[in-house]
From TrEMBL:
Principal place of residence: nucleus
HTH psq-type domain residues: 42-77
KW Signal (keyword) present: yes
Signal peptide residues on this chain, from the entry's feature table: 1-17
Subcellular location: Nucleus
This protein's GO CC annotations: nucleus
SUPFAM superfamilies according to UniProt: Homeodomain-like
Protein name: HTH psq-type domain-containing protein
Keywords of this entry: Signal
Superkingdom classification of source: Eukaryota
Organism taxonomic ancestry: Eukaryota, Metazoa, Ecdysozoa, Arthropoda, Hexapoda
Any one GO MF annotation of this record: DNA binding
Amino acid sequence: MTTRFQIIFCLCHWLSSQYGSQEKSAAGVRRYGTKSNYSQKDLDEALDKIKTCKLPQMEAANLFKIPRSTLKYKLKGQHNKLVGKPIALLESEEELFISHIVTLADLRTPVGMNI
């Protein structure tokens, strides 16, 4: 019987071969989203305090440990897109793909990159 982990591993392997794999970035190139040490809750609270004039931007940045530029961009409504690649499959397509792999596994048909 195929485990869910094996199915997800196979799916991830197939997707990475179809859409390219994550490569290490070159030296000196920033990997966005990896240096954030604050939560969305902290960001929302900081923005709320700034909008209600309870804290200036600099104090909120220091208190919540959020870069001042991030607060400034969020207040202006800039840079609101999600970081990372867009999803490759819809949820329904992913479920269909998983059920297909499970069916093949139940029939003991090998699932590989060339099938």
